[in-house]
Amino acid sequence: MATCQPNSPAASHPLIATFNRAGQGQVFAFFDRLDPDSRDRLLAQAAEIDLAEIARLTATLLTPGANTGTDLLGLAPAPYEPRPENGGDPTAWAAARAAGETALRDGRVAAFTVAGGQGTRLGYDGPKGTFPVTPVQRKTLFQVFAEKILAAGRRFGRTPRWFIMTSHANHEATETFFATHNFFGLNPERVHCFRQGRMPAVGLDGKILLEAPDAIALSPDGHGGALRALERSGALDRMAADGADTISYFQVDNPLVRCLDAEFIGWHLLRGSALSSKMVVKSGPEEKVGHFCVLGGRTVVIEYSEPAMQPKLPEKNPDGSLRFRAGSIAIHLLDREFVRRMARGGNIALPFHRADKQIVCLDSAGNPVKPTKPNGVKFEQFVFDALPFAQNPIVIETSRADDFSPVKNAAGPDSPATCRADQLRQFARWLRAAGVAIATDATGLPPFDLEISPLFATDQETFAAAWEKLSPKPKIEPGLYLG
User: Structural domain of residue 143, as residue ranges?
Assistant: First the structure.
């Protein structure tokens, strides 16, 4: 790329001098051609970058022969606490629920949604959290979560704070959406949006790439970046001032999530866990979820895409069940101060992973490059990589039907259609459990749309209590909405 002239504006700027010393001066190759606003934008992006971190990652992950895989020698399935209907101890689950309810009454829990994504894969233009998802009212993902938080506040007398991690791409649109909808009845002072951190993409030589003369090729630093973002945004300090020591982590694409689950919270607190996780039994070896495992005496998550994991996926137990059956669904509880220690790095810090990508960028002459094969690397962190550092990590089983139906794809698995059907099945189960006759097919799917708001009920038990109070009872018919 071009270099700056000795008397140019770039030559005297201290930040640019720092990049030059680090061997990354190409970032400012076109600086002298930019207008003042474009220069300010590029400088602001450059100020986000930790050059020492980039140098370390280049040395450890890009050096020829660097081992970017995982040695799975000795890998074993992680233990987990099964639900009572699957052989778990009902007394222990009841104790966990009581402890979790106490924690919610005491205001010890904060809700945290990872919501940096756009709806691109859904064919939707906007933040994914603004995507309409419920069968009748077409409530958005954000509204579903807001109503679950409101419902918890009404039930336990303390409405948890809600922290939402956005991205640079959708932050302003997310804030505008909440303001336009009056925060769905929540106190605006208890809903906090903050941006996820970003990392620069680098070429295979470790040089930071430009996507435009005034723009670095930046991308979110992975869901593990949530830990650093919680610290840097001041969210952890807000929680501490509020008396919340437990963070309920969930992703924006899953409207079924029990985001303030008393049983889960109770297990976490009674075990003195720094990081707790939910699992579902995998539907089959091909299901694309991470796996809770034990490696070197520590609980870890191994992704389905890990090459060394592929031969292990079909392994069976003597009873014919999958050996590696505990699937990770990105629902966690984290101790606030554990997050702070992980965010600050030092002796314990999340590792970065290398992802080879086709990155649209500029060449040395400033011409756009649209590669047909990977030409660079993005660096990402994964939140589950905190597991090996956590004290007393615990994994509990959850019911897929009541906790997990993500909206990821426009069609096929994990799509709006499958999620809508899963919501309808849940509503029909609640009705039948309350003694209400409702026709369904063999999978439990009713023949028409209906909807139960979280403000009416959040689970089978609260539905039965709310239904009992209704007089007269509504007719079970298409378009039924209970809110």
Answer: 48-413
